Amino acid sequence: MGLLLRQLKKTYVGPDGSTVPVIDIAELYLADGEQAALVGASGCGKTTLLHLIAGILTPDSVTVLFGYDPDNPANGDAVVDLTRLAESQRDEFRGRYMGYIFQTHHLLAGFTALENVLLGMTFTGRKHDRSWAEHLLSEVGLADRLHYRPQKLSLGQQQRVAVARALANRPRLVLADEPTGALDAANAQQVLELIRQLCAEVGASLLLVSRIW
Asked: Cα–Cα distance between 135 and 168 in angstroms, integer?
């Protein structure tokens, strides 16, 4: 799913009442199936950008087009402008077409690895696909940990479950916000490779914020 951002702006009001610009991007295009990394210093607005793309935050001004293809302008009817959707519609669109990987795993402690991945399908409008969830966990090296709860898994294993969960709905776009920030170098590289591999497997575009690429 191609992604086009135009005139993306986001500002906040500072403690003294002044306007603080956080995001100001003239244009950004991510082709269908493309993988790209965002690199920048802490606090420069990388997470804010991902939240704007996901429709979690509302921009001051922007056009966010999903399904855009510059080589096929006739596909205009298939393009979705996220900024024109109501909040409930944005939530539904995000659940169906996006996967989000956070810096920390945000797994539910009372559920097993398999159940956490199945929960990733809850808001997609699709039935739970146990075989797909098991396949994803196998792909991230956790075929023998399906029924382990997060507290029985290492930090690296927990983040692998989070990666599998983000791919549970077979998304068209995956947003990854410093997904390896809490891991050591060896685990970080492995998790990054898994994210890239699984996105390629499902044909998802990937926009990732990380210190390693």
From this structure: 10
Beta bridge mates, 11: 21
Tokens of 198: 């699984």
Torsion over CA: 138, 144, 149, 153 (sign): negative
Non-local (6+) Cβ contacts of 33 within 8 A are 200, 203, 204, 205
Q: Is the dihedral of CA 204, 209, 212, 213 positive or negative?
A: positive
Domains observed in the chain? 3-209 (3.40.50.300)
Phi, psi for residue 183 in degrees, rounded to 5: -105, 155
Q: Which whole-number Å values give the CA distances from 108 to 28, 55, 88, 103, 153, in the listed order?
A: 34, 23, 24, 15, 13
Sheet strands side by side (includes 61-66): 19-30, 3-13, 61-66, 80-81
Model confidence pLDDT, tens digit, residues 171-205:
999 999 999 888 888 888 898 999 999 999 999 99
Q: What is the pTM of this model?
A: 0.88
Give the span between the Cα atoms of 149 and 112, in whole angstroms. 4
- Give Cβ neighbours of residue 165 (< 8 Å, ≥ 6 apart): 107, 116, 117, 119, 120
d(CA 112, CA 148): 5
DSSP characters over 61-102:
EEEEEES--TT-GGGGGG-EEGGGS-HHHHHHHHHHHEEEE-
